[in-house]
Amino acid sequence: PNGQGKTNFLEALYTLSLGKSFRTSVSEDLINWENEYLRCNCEVFTDDEAMNLEVFYSRSPRQKNFKRNGVNLKNSEYLGNLLTVLFHPEDLNMLYLSPSLRRKYLDVILSQTDKKYLKNLSQFKKVLKQRNALLQEIREAKFNNKNTENLIEDLEAWDHELVEFASYILEKRNEFIKYLNEKIEEYYSEIADEKSEIDIEYYSKTNEISYAELIKLRQNEDIRRAETSTGPHRDDIKFFINGKDISKSASRGEYRTLLLAIKLIEIQYIKDKTGKNPILLLDDVFSELDRKRQGHLLKAIKGCQTIITTNDLDLLNEFSELKNSIKVIEKTSQ
Questions:
Q1: Quick one: 207 exposed, middle or buried, by C-beta within 10 A (0-12, 13-18, 19+)?
Q2: Distance (Å, whole) CA 225 – CA 222
Q3: What is the tens place of the pLDDT at every residue in 288-329?
């Protein structure tokens, strides 16, 4: 039944995979009100090893811990031990709501498959925070007619670091967009059962000029605004079907087809990059898809361990190809 914690179970697995939830960015929100901490464990078995993973959060003191086989790890070392691909009804939001959702999508998949990307992303965020604080200090100094020469020198030092980390992030994001574009038309057209021209573009001001030059050109504007106005934290992805921006013309069915195609490519990308099949987490997505799209999703399930939440068991029983490989777990009491 609804309200029994099915999505919470997938959230636990996702947290064990990525060290954070897909529903909140605040770790403390995952802890029950009456408790001071949470501890989540799982055992992972692959062809060549078995391991125990643990994620721990506490409120007081505020603490995060990640463990593999009882050994504490940094988040960057922990990530990649349990590879997952999440299908969730709210994933559609990624296609047409805030650009931050699309940047988050890129960061999640690239961080799972490239530890260097995760490291550069983490360092970029730290330097960005320092740079923005310095921009605020410079603006206040200018307003009070104080000398800013030394502060500008400090700013240029932060800029050098920011460019170094941003360059790797931009390179890998563009490589992934290229990978998507190489496959998206084939996947989309097969699901839609009609030929369509699909294009995915990474929108960045660095497409026309290097980030180092851009940061220098925008320095005065950044000081005036007291924030870094360009970079990976401001970039976006645009999706086009037959030359038209989907945000202006796509139907609900086209959105669903595009999302499903992207997710299927994501599975293939993880396989190509790691040589491993990810765990698929499907949160009541069959009810969001018509019969044809359900069939395409079933093709992706083959070969991957898949955990499905649903309140309509009859829907799954309709698929004869699943009957011999499904194990049903029902919550029968509180």
A1: exposed
A2: 5
A3: 777 777 777 777 777 788 888 887 777 666 665 666 677 777
